[in-house]
Amino acid sequence: MSRIKDLQKNLFGGTTSNARQFGMIFTLVAIVVLFQILTDGLTLRSDNLIALFQQNSYILILAIGMLMVIVAGHIDLSVGSVAAIAGILVAKSMADWSLPWPAAIVFGLVIGAVIGAWQGFWVAYVGVPAFIVTLAGMLLFRGGNQFIGNANTIPVPEGFRVIGSGFLPEVGPNTGYNNMTLLLGLAACAAVVWRELQSRRTRRQMDADAAPMWISILRLAVMIGVIVFASLRFASGRVGTSFPVSGIILVALVLAYSFYTRNTAGGRHIYAVGGNSRAAELSGVKLKRVNFFVMMNMSVLAALAGMIFVARSAASGPQDGNGWELDAIAAVFIGGAAVAGGIGTISGSIVGGLVMAVLNNGLQLMGVGTDRVQIIKGLVLLLAVAIDVYNKSQGRFSVIGSLTRPFRRDGSGPPTASPKVGGDAAPVKVAG
Amino acid sequence: MNDVPILLEMRSITKEFPGVKALADVNLVVRAGEIHAICGENGAGKSTLMKVLSGVYPYGTYDGQIVYQGAETRFSDIRASESAGIVIIHQELALIPGMSITENIFLGNEPRRRGAIDWKSANRMALELMARVGLAEDPDTLIKDIGVGKQQLVEIAKAFAKDVKLLILDEPTAALNEADSRHLLDLLRGFRARGVTSIMISHKLNEIEAIADQITILRDGRTVETLDVKADGVDEDRIVRGMVGRELGSRFPDHTPKIGEIFFEVRNWNVRHPISADRQVCKNESFVVRRGEIVGFAGLMGAGRTELAMSVFGRSYGVYESGTIIKDGKEIVLKSVADAIAHGLAYVSEDRKAIGLNLLDDIKTSTVAAKLSKISHHGVLDEVEQYQAAEAYRRELRTKAPTVDEGVSKLSGGNQQKVVLAKWMFTDPDLLILDEPTRGIDVGAKYEIYGIIQRLADQGKGVVVISSELPELIGLCDRTYTVFEGTITGEIARADADPETLMKQMTSTKKMQTR
Amino acid sequence: MRNFLGKSVAIGAIAALALTACGSGRDEESGSSGGDAKGFAANSLIGVALPAKTSENWVLAGDLFSNGLKEAGFTSDVQYAGASTTVADQQAQITAMVTKGAKVIVIGATDAAQLSTQVAAAHQAGVKVIAYDRLITNSPDLDYYVAFDNFKVGQLQGQALLDGMKAKKPNGPYNIELFSGSPDDNNAGVFFNGAMDVLKPEIDKGNVVVGSKQVDVKQTAIQGWKAEGAQARMDQLLTSTYGSKELDGVLSPNDTLGRAIITSIKGANKPIPVVTGQDSEVESVKSIIAGEQYMTINKDTRTLVKQTITMVKSLQAGENPEVNDTKSYNNGSKVVETYLLPPVAVTKANAAEAYANDPKLAPLTK
Question: What torsion do the CA atoms of C345, C351, C355, C360 make, to the nearest 10 degrees?
């Protein structure tokens, strides 16, 4: 048993992994393998992987912001509408005022910031619940989109489309692969090794036993294996295609925000506010500032997501952003965040989003209609969260405890699941 | 005594959590019509035992037997135990604040007539039940409009509505003032006279001594002994010996204060209530703290001590009106908690769980939460330093936890309080304000916390202790202010401090000074 | 230990997948055949991406494609967009069809302007793209367009509106209101312009009066072809303009909106004016027979699907499909080769004749 615990504790992300995330990663792997078999190898073919990233990068970008909003104890229903209004304004700015596209991107982010400041003001400084503020925002900005665009579609220029449908360029000698993508993969491998060494050193400094060597090696082997596999796949796409630009934006954001939420005071404050806002306030956390920031940040990311979608669609349309908030929220909760706030990780949300994305893609490849896809996705969301809730309830029997909130963000403590229920094995079963 | 029939017998109860044996071979015998107290330090297994009894941990998740009313029972959930007449009243009351007394009493148990709730008979029955617990209120009064003491009575009335045979009270007087506590204990005696059996968990040994017939003492998940109060001539010291496994010489560690000069002063402090602006919660209050001094604040509940402390601590309560704070000879203005922390103030709140800790956090993140800048370099948190700081405090304060990765929600009250203390010691404060620092903490842990407070004072810090337990103030404080209705009514030196003097000052507006 | 084994297997699976990746170089097979190669295998996959199932016409078209393509020996993959995230769904579906190796993709676009990236990807993978019913705009990679002559549809609606009103009331001026379809549907404007081609001269002469003065396509548009949108707009027009005035006719671009308009007018207890329509939906045909809705357009989905499949067959054989219009349909990037089918106007008078071959509608006309 202890080896399994070691593995569970240490295999993914060292001290900050938690049983839930561990389960989710295996769910993801299981779903990928399942569809790889069911679709005769289409799922992991390079063109499909590339399409998968392009199609979902904007939802995953939303999930990053949504995770922070939900951890802080709020919700944002307006992201789709904010994305739509930012998209139409940016498209219009290029079509009507001939703004060059890089300036238009900056303009789009500024729109996001202004909208975010508006919503943040109501949430943080007036104290209107975010649910209401963003429900209003959902109507407000959707209406704004239709008003500004007259519900027309407005095409965007070639240059701008790069952020949504562009790829890493072809440079250097003909190796049969996209060289930039290979380099990127190599850099990722190096980063993974460096991080592993770093974390071993940190663990030693904390007088904790660093994970056994075999685990470190196994973990490195698995991660490098995945990276090598992925970069070869992305690099071997049709000439002209490779790792998508939107994917690079996503990866950069995931790294930056993971670092921010885990390793800075600002990130720590978000968890503190979501965990117990009064206690956070009495510890010197500027509650209003944190709430304002998460709401504003969400709208900026929503604007970015809107622009990426518009770039990919080559035009801004009145349907942009419809239903995105639900996809983003689902990703965050499948990724292990708590409805009451205070719990959740960026990487978890990304994995949650990928589970949905792979499911969607795999079912489409199998020719399953959207009606049935929606039914399956709905059930998966429900099941994933239900298993989580069940596991938690097995660990916390007390009536008083049930009044207080679920308490674990960091899974390094002993598992709370009773021996009867395999804490990490259960979610894996969903897939099978 | 032994010819009285046994109502409940729990035989060799063993309950394991992954990695922890919470109960090992515990036995409990409760006879009909007695008041049976269960004592033990926090973490001794009292609550777990009661959860096994009430079916929160259903049959099958523990080992052992429960024999109730002569037959073995296997409760599958709380409902099952309640329908057998076993009702638990928790420390945190399970009442709905926005509903009336009647509605609360019959919540989930509403009298019906043809499918609809029969409010007429509900109100009539509520009045009967309220009379039984000595509660004279309009049954339509909302719960939030009555005091904690009366809320407790509503809980008990609710238990009677379920036709209770065995009433279990978990720390029933913890949140009550003296008068309400006394009323509650009288009530329990009355129930005994009418044949109701009660199990009571309490830290207040004087109450146990006064009321219990039998006492079962648990330590580290095992039954230590069961004492018959009358036959064995049990007193407080006897109970304490059983609980901690040794004699406690004194409740307070020996301490010679090293008091320096005045370094912190609050002058003419006026604060209004946050909602009703015409209510003045701090009326022209002034006090001083010296280096190395432990200063007590005595007062009844609602006297405004917490309000004073929190308003000084970065205006985190009420609306500031006027008044100055002088530290080290200079006037300082503290507009936010961050200001207060930066100026070396720390406030340990009276309610650890609600406003003192983020229960989702582990020990290490809690320890550093109030001063993240101390473990940050260029805005990036250093995990190693965080660990080292937390570990150092864990050792220094002897917090009982396997590692600092442990979630604070899993710690006992005393150990949670140590984490809160560590959190504020980590900010390197000059002045620590401790609001009810030992509430809900068992005897052994109290002793340790007193020691920590004294060591902090010896390091030259000023310590303010707000407490409702007079013996605590008398034993610990070098000087005590009394507060009555938002006014400081007295300042009493250690030598003059006795319960009578304090109580007199706490209940009158007349100023008095003993120096 | 069983747990542990399970995990080891999963890890092993990843490793194995990683190894298989190393074996394959750059994907050339799909990229090479961009040009006009000599057709493709007779049992190839043909993708059909249709909008959300909001009207029975799309459902019918989907069924016809499934069966028709199967009969012709192809493998078919017919997909509808989801109800809420329509555009994104359709984009993903088209990409998936390309991945699966479809040789021809027939697209009934949900938003005609937002598919150019996917069409380009299809083109690069050597897939022929046929725009079905709705022209995909701003795409230089679209190969063919097949549709009913929508300008003609509008003209027929306009003419029928005039004829209908004249039949009820020999002399004008006639009060009418105009409705048009969803602004993101390229066809909506074409219908409207066709109708205005007939109505405009009459309006200018003063024979026909638009009571609300809302004559611009943006003022008359109903987002998403939503019935409730049309009903709400009609409700407002009735209260704002037709308190005492009589309403003689309403130009409705399709049956769903037409019936919504009639519902609104009935709700206001006004006599039903001449209301046009399009699509020959079952309910509207019943309504026409009952004398409520005045006309509809029969754009027989069967003919359109049949024509599309004929084009797919030509492509399969390596021939150029037959087209009959190489001038009119400029999608913003190029003039698209188009096959246009003629629409038929249906009123109560010719319903039986028009639907004689339709197994579902024919019984209704008896």
Answer: 120
